[in-house]
């Protein structure tokens, strides 16, 4: 019991708004099938190392900056769709931590094959196919925080484990196949198990307890998804200092490298503008940063849920047009065949980065065999839409940053897809630049998070290598539903953070006494096509003709990236708000809220609607 | 109608003195971050209600003064001043007890920077600023005590 308490201690704050029942049950589930982790938690109580007990009730976060004699340096974690890595500032440089098998990059999966689930940090796959037996859950990053109407969840249904959707806007059902039983789990739980392994690994390498982390996240993640990541971290006993959009982590590494060049008298101190293109297995992100003097000012961010997984699925369907039919039944044999095809296709895609053509020969075991040559052109043609999307992300990012290709100093292509020739060429041709060679494309993001971890922990470096600052921008617009069913952004995308903006709205009906504020995040013009963050009513408006009450909606993103929505009503000529101001911390939605917007509409129609007030 | 709304300022944040260097590793600021004009900020954003926003710095200073640069400063100088101030005032580097005010302070600095670094916006601002008659703002506040909660957590639920 007390161990439960200890694990939960990092999320005391959460329990205020979070159904703690849900949380406890998730914890106990985690504990039930995770005895080894229990043991490590158990040590907390028995050994009571002082460092483990620092997180007392009274302490809040923000303590990180306090200068103790031995400040704890936060580790940086890159949770990839396909691979994960951990890095730390070791006092003079960033160092990637290796697991017991000497790997710096570890596969992202958790297998439920044994009584105790184990992840890619500690577990040794006997063969790649083992990951595809149905007993392992992977691609968590693509599933976390998504509802079952999300196309990305639907695309995940062709993975060997079970992704079941009811298509009503609730959390999808996810399960691993163990001894012919589908055992259910959640993306948060899978991620938490994996993070515990990472933490244990880092603790044994660094010989000290780990609590604070900086994680990299995709640009396109909604604030709701961020809360899921934070919850998974809390379940794993980790406290999130920062969540950094992946390309901004790379930008920070770049900023540090430029500083070092100046230090070595090899660079100039003038402002450098860089474009970072980061594509992994699950997500593609682009950032434009302006860097000088160790300050990385993020000018623009764009991102989308496209990645290596899409290349792979398109290719599998190309090689086996009957793919979806064949694997719809999902018996043990079908899963096995699917796994064989997946491994063969993945292998071919890797080879096509370095060879013009590759021979595929795979026996699917069900009587069908694929034996053919695939060339690079074919691969590029099959995935043309993805490449076009990548192109548009780069162009959009330059446009948003108000930067011309000619203004760029450096261009970086990083992430798991960075060796695909077509991707490199398209970025090069848009940016009219050769690619920057100064960083390892697979380690850039995690290195950036480790730098941010050190900076956010208040560590300083005598050589000035940590004199760094990232000025972040909002990756998605935040606004409310108004003017019918439109999304009206209040804080637009790419606004420098911290930020505070407000807009004035008014009623649509005479004597309208209530208005409904529905907060969304995203870019779509229609409100419901964006991510719902929460909603609340303002009641008690005095009767007045439509268009008269002034409803001010203010959005505030503070230094800790916490979003608050404030709303107040005044009548013309009055100085005082007529009803108390509402202040709501967002997101307020919990799991399975896809139906909320619809339910609200059913309940209220357009009775509580708002319209924007035209500037006069 | 909207312009008839009184612009009020909150009393919670007083004018900010040149920040003491929060951590030794940062160069001391050469320019000081004073406060921006809420009047001009209002003009820029076209926003009307200040009762929701908590910054409210009563003194009227020009955007140039916010960045600590001369009126004729070059684009280079504007950028350099912005970065220099960010190194001191950004909440990520400000001391823990100043987080709240540093966010406001940084937003002022950024607003000044984004206006002055854009040649068009700067031209518009310069024109208005030249014509503008300095008038003192009343400091009555409808919400003088109103502030956002300030639990400083990175972890939000």
The total strand number of chain B stands at 0
Q: Residue ranges of chain B: pLDDT <50 for 5 or more in a row?
A: 1-48, 133-157
Uncertain spans of chain A: 1-70
Secondary structure category of chain B: mainly alpha
Q: Please give the count of helices of chain B.
A: 5
Query: Could you tell me the number of beta strands of chain A?
Result: 28
Largest interface: A-B, 72 and 53 residues
Q: Mean pLDDT of chain A, nearest integer?
A: 86
Shape of chain B: globular
Q: What does the oligomeric state look like here? A: heterodimer
Q: Distance N terminus to C terminus of chain A?
A: 62 Å
**Helical amount among residues of chain B, as a percent range?**
25-40%
Mean pLDDT of chain B, nearest integer? Answer: 62
| Secondary-structure element series of chain B | HHHHH
Cα radius of gyration of chain A in angstroms: 25 Å
CA-to-CA gap between the ends of chain B? 39 Å
Note the main sheet of chain B. Answer: none
β-sheet strand percentage of chain B = under 5%
Protein name (chain B): J domain-containing protein
Region (Disordered) (chain B): 1-28
Biased composition (Low complexity) (chain B): 1-18
Domain J (chain B): 62-129
